[in-house]
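During the second year of the project, the team shifted from modelling isolated chains to modelling whole assemblies. The rationale, set out in the original proposal, was that interfaces cannot be judged from single-chain predictions alone. As a representative example for this report, we include one of the complexes processed in the last quarter. Its constituent sequences, exactly as entered into the pipeline, are reproduced here:
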Amino acid sequence: MKEELANRLVQGLKKAGINFVTYLPETRLSQIVPLIRDDPGMELVAVSSEQEAVTIAVGATLGGKQAAVYMENTGIYVSSYSLLVTGKQLGVPILLVVGFLGGVPDQRNSFLYATIGNHTIPVLQGLGIEHQVLEDGEKLEIKISDAVRAANALRAPYALLFAGEFSE
Amino acid sequence: MIRHECLESLAAKMSDQLEVTSQSGQRIEWSHLSKHEGNLLVGMMGCAIGVATGLALALPHRKVIALDSDGSVLLSLFNLATLGNLRPKNLVIYVFDNGVYSGSRISYATATSGNTDLTAMARGAGIANAHTIRDIEEFNKQGIGALTRNELAFFVCKVEESLLHREIPRPNTDLAENKYTFVRFLERTEEKTIPFVGRG
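Output from the structure prediction step:
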């Protein structure tokens, strides 16, 4: 991902009100981690599993933060239980910022990732989690703001899956 | 020591703390003992410590309590490593370890009935203030005492299996009602709006 796009992504999160981010790093979007870390307006929390990335973000949201979780799409599988229990069942909005490995628009797709990518959207659909695939920077800030607003309105997680230019 | 007597002691100390409880017989006992508006029920196992951690980080000036079980902690052992590094000073975790999957109605042993020591695991993960509590006197002294200290605490409370919760009427407050009671309590006591609630 080009530096300019990484900066816009983080500024877009901030503009949308995100001030608390839990994460487990991956390869496609990892440039956003130091940018978030160095932003005094955002709290960055490293975790050991995507499952707790979700539960910690849910707790922070209930405590008054606007929280996001940054993860690889493999983390959707790992965290599906906590997404369902604390996101959907308890009804708490969080934004999922997902590096979408192995999907058709993944510019670094290979036999390593294709199966993982192929099941991501059906799993999100199965969990009833609204989502959108972003392939370029067009209207990026608006799309992030729309996603946060939708999550809050739905009282549920909303997933933005980043591929295309974000995976270069 | 049984769980109910520990919860009874704890309920008497609830003031402005926030409390997160997991799914197990304890949530029935706790809902019977404490009508505190700062009680948040997380509906299933393995998620309460994470939610409590998020609350503790978001509200560092508030004491946050997590009530959990051995089965639940075994489902979410990654929490230990994360807490061992974050060490939120305002979080106190009580794990009621009866050594069995009591809710399954066949009470088969959990790993803590065998060779697994959750306190040692917590210490190894970096939670320096992790202790095993074996009687109610110790619970009242060390466990309750942690509420007034400014340090992450992790207590594994070794309790006998008790089926007392099956004699207690189950609460009829659903998760959504409980969540909004909790959020409104926070809004009132923090004098701020919780953003996601928004306007209709």
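Chain B has a mean pLDDT of 95. Chain B has eight helices and six strands.
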